[in-house]
Amino acid sequence: MNTKQPFIQHAHHQDRTMKVYMLGCVDFDSLLTLQERALQELRRDQSESAVLFVCEHPPLITIGREGSHAQLVDSHQEFKSGQIETRWVNRGGGAIFHAPGQLAVYPVLPLKQLGIGLQEYKQGLEQAIIAMAAEQSVEAQVQPDSEGISSRCGQFACLGAAIKSWISYYGFYINVSPDMKLLRLVDSNRYDHRLTSLSATLTREASMSSVRESIVRNLVSRFGYRDTPVFTRHPLLNRVKKKVYVHT
């Protein structure tokens, strides 16, 4: 376990449990349903308990509150013919192309009960990503005035968080080893930061399982959780496998 001091430091309580769902490739709507259910449970319980969803998504484009149609490099007809859905979502950030090989991480945390604000929450996410990258032998830093985390080769992760009733949802995305041709169908590079992946930075295949384990451990440590049961299934989850054909 990470021996660094937790990002949140105050007395431990019996209900300080983070349920971790380490899931496979699941459809986006299922994760929205799971997050909403977890958010409602946390709002009802008023405890310090939390839920963390870690997964990958089939090819899909989501556009956050700061995004626009101008970020779509190809026409909408091209996306339709390739069976790629485009969704407007209530998270921070702009347009993001999701695909297998990109790790999606959704922390559902009761910020009010933890006694942290929005800036502290964002910093906790950034610190966890940078610490994970260091364990993969990648030196990373926050891109100023943006939602991105970059290495020497470009931006490999981005934040896309949201808050409802002082409970966090959505989260961030890490390009571990996705098909970069797919990701370049969207101009997510609003700040002129070159998109890359951990695999491209390392010039070898990055281990998805190692990245998953590391990011979970660092998030748990940063936000001061100790009791972290891990699940690999969820009764409401739909596992999917979707093929998308891209003409280059």
TrEMBL record:
Coiled-coil residue spans: none
Alphabetically ordered keywords of this record: Acyltransferase, Transferase
Gene3D superfamilies, sorted: Bira Bifunctional Protein, Domain 2
Catalytic function, reaction form: octanoyl-[ACP] + L-lysyl-[protein] = N(6)-octanoyl-L-lysyl-[protein] + holo-[ACP] + H(+)
Pathway assignment: Protein modification; protein lipoylation via endogenous pathway; protein N(6)-(lipoyl)lysine from octanoyl-[acyl-carrier-protein]: step 1/2
Source domain of life: Bacteria
Enzyme class name: transferase
One Pfam family, short name: LplA-B_cat
Entry EC no(s): 2.3.1.181
GO molecular function, one term: lipoyl(octanoyl) transferase activity
Residue span(s) of domain BPL/LPL catalytic: 46-227
InterPro entries according to UniProt: aa-tRNA-synth_II/BPL/LPL, BPL_LPL_catalytic, Octanoyltransferase
GO process annotations (BP): protein lipoylation
Family membership noted in the UniProt record: Belongs to the LipB family.
Reported function: Catalyzes the transfer of endogenously produced octanoic acid from octanoyl-acyl-carrier-protein onto the lipoyl domains of lipoate-dependent enzymes. Lipoyl-ACP can also act as a substrate although octanoyl-ACP is likely to be the physiological substrate.
Name listed for the protein in its UniProt record: Octanoyltransferase
